[in-house]
Amino acid sequence: MFRGLIMSEKNYISIHNSEAFPVKSIPIVDIDDFRETVITEIERGKRLASFFGRPLNESAVCLTAVIADDKRGCLQILSTEVEKSYQSLTPDCSQANCFEREIAEQWGIVPLGHPWFKPLRFHHSYRKEYDAWERGLDEEILPAHTDFYQVSGDEVHEVAVGPVHAGVIEPGHFRFQCSGERVFHLEIALGFQHRGIERAIISGDKSKIPHYMETLAGDTTIGHSVAYAQAMEALSGCLVSGRAQILRGIMLELERMANHVGDIGALANDVAFLPTASYCGRLRGDYLNMTAMICGNRFGRNMVRPGGVMYNLDASLISQLSRKLEEVFSDTENAIGLMWDSPSAIGRFEDTGKISREIAEELGLVGVAARACGFERDVRFDFPTGIYCFSQIPVATFSTCDVFARAYVRGLEIQRSKSFICEQLETITGDDIFTVPGDSAPDMAVVSMLEGWRGEICHFAMTGADGNLLHYKVVDPSFHNWNGLAASMRNEEVSNFPICNKSFNLSYCGHDL
Amino acid sequence: MIKVLMARAKQGYRTSAFPVEPPALSDRFVGAPVIGRPKCPPKCSKCVELCPMQCISRNTEKISIDIGKCIFCGKCAESCSPGILHFSKDYRMAVRKREELVLSGPVINLAEELNKEMKKLFGRSLKLRQVCAGGCNACEADVNVLNTLAWDLGRFGIQFVASPRHADGLLVTGPVTENMKLALKKTYEAVANPKLVIAVGACAISGGIYEGHSEANNGVQSIIPVDLFIPGCPPHPSTILDGLLRLMGRLKGDAREKINDSQPIPPVGDQLETRKKLIRSVIRS
């Protein structure tokens, strides 16, 4: 214990959310110390918020881990340098699983001893001479063409679904190993949505960056664009006006309400409870239209930019919005309450798609999925930025870890977001909504986190000697939670997949980038 | 049961009167761009430089704008002198040919209906299979919303079906990522002839902001032929529905001139000043 304390003090730096720090201040330790520090810290109940590689020169890659200490509200960062391979962290730290596969795929670095080593997004390595699976440069890489966990025996069968699904949704491939209706294991292969955004942020046209942020996951337009704005503001030392912060908060909560209402409606639809399904479908659109009242676009496009926001509210719009919100919220309470009052609907949700608290902790789940397992984990509360520093939203949790808990937490969050927006609309002050951001400082880095409607959004940005972005890493909450969905299907019936899936409602493009 | 009935009474009838009445749009809605009659000032190319999508080109006296690439950020219009380029509140933008999305005047040749034979087949019942091929879930969401009671797509005979084998055509969103190219081709092949393809959103039409990425293609047309283009980022649900109905021959005429609010979007509060500030900062950098 004592040794661990001393070791960790020199092995990482502690920083705060959206606070710029010199790149040089990140300690570069050898790989053994790096492994030990990350594994020890995660064992102590912290979380791996981000873990990524960036090329240093022709042969070396710098691995950086961002560890979130929810209790103390700070982030710990450390780096190490590797060339071709290193001892995998995953056997001792499940949270590193997808991160290590991502690093292997992007930079051709092999995590030795990784228990389930396969590509994540199915693309060629960014370092031409290095490929973790020794595939040739001309070799065609087809998505989901890889090993899948298989169960064999009498009466065991495999169900394969996707990439093109039956509904209007994004593509992904799902493999169920079943015995009759019972699912032993679900494995999810993604990567179909990979558009190469992170690379384009660094090497592409700068004027497109805000638009990349808005389409990282189109349903989280505000979430990702605020995270980006916070990062750039920290790097350039730009102070954002209070009014802009309030407007960002209002937009973010409207985004949360719209999506949560939609998810509850989708859950109702999947258990054939049609009144709630129909009403929520319409109500989701009403929340999107409120977003459009503010910025003209239903998803909040062109609203948030580094320096502030692009659209203001005047007195008449504030009163229109308040009126509309009261009206729509009252219908929402009515529509959702109807389902809570129907034992036949609730019976389908209870005890379905359970994940134990231990598994949730081991996988490092975030957002609604974590709070439905009783974890008080919310960036707005643990690592507040902007308006959330001044106006706190109580964290909504539930402890049954099932589909019902994930639906119920959404219901609670809708209520709390509504109170927050009302309070902000009543007290909004100031006039300025935009400050022109200056140039970013050279050789600085920042971690910008935000609680999007799905959970923790984490952006890491780093500038080079010329002040331009040298590295940018996005972690969408879905990246942490896809394995949670797979875990929730263990010993479930195949026919319960739709409601388990909707209770998570994860992003494919947010994962695939 | 009594609670369900009471809720039904409270929620009321909410299906919009579209297309009989125009859709309720936000005052700040950014619709089709309009290039007015006045000539551009000599040597001015502010809009061309500001456009992150490079969808505007300057000819000798005028500009043209490709709404198949446009993401409707509105930067160009804010830098422009009055009357030359502005964004209207007109939501109708769907066309049948890609080149018709390149506007050099105020008029868009809105989608014509299917030919007689195709209209006989699909005019009253159109079953579509949706394929998301790299879409960010915004186009998908605004396609999906048409299924809700607010739009009630079924009343027009349009339905999204679960299999390409049941479909009359595909509705595709996204730039077509490399990883979805094969799946899109296979889905297309699985639809019986004759079939339709509808590209929804800037990405599906031209690759959108992912144009030129090695991980993505430049839109659906680079893979399979397209019969209807619906621009926007994402298109408003009414833009999508308007396009579908025009294709089926259930909505006719170019009543563009009749829309009386095709005026520039009025600045609200200090919005204009803010955006000017941003534009100045962009020009500087």
Could you walk me through the main structural features you see in this protein, from its secondary elements to its overall organization?
With 513 residues, chain A is α+β, with helices and mostly antiparallel strands. Chain A folds into three domains: 2-94, no CATH class; 156-189, no CATH class; 197-512, Cytochrome-c3 Hydrogenase, chain B (Orthogonal Bundle). Helices cover 42% and strands 17% of the residues of chain A. Chain A contains 17 helices and 16 strands. Chain A has helices at residues 2-11, 31-43, 97-107, 197-203, 209-215, 221-236, 242-270, 274-295, 315-340, 343-349, 357-363, 367-371, 379-382, 403-427, 477-488, 497-504, 508-512; strands at 13-15, 21-22, 28-29, 47-55, 61-69, 74-82, 85-87, 110-112, 156-161, 173-179, 182-189, 304-305, 308-309, 444-451, 456-463, 469-475. In chain A, strands 1, 3, 4, 5 and 6 form a five-stranded mixed beta sheet that branches. The longest helix of chain A has 29 residues, at 242-270. Residues 1-8 of chain A have low confidence and may be disordered. Chain B has 285 residues and is α/β, with parallel strands linked by helices. Chain B has a domain at 116-247: Rossmann fold (3-Layer(aba) Sandwich), CATH 3.40.50. Chain B is globular and about 65 Å long. Mean pLDDT of chain B is 86; it is low at 255-270.
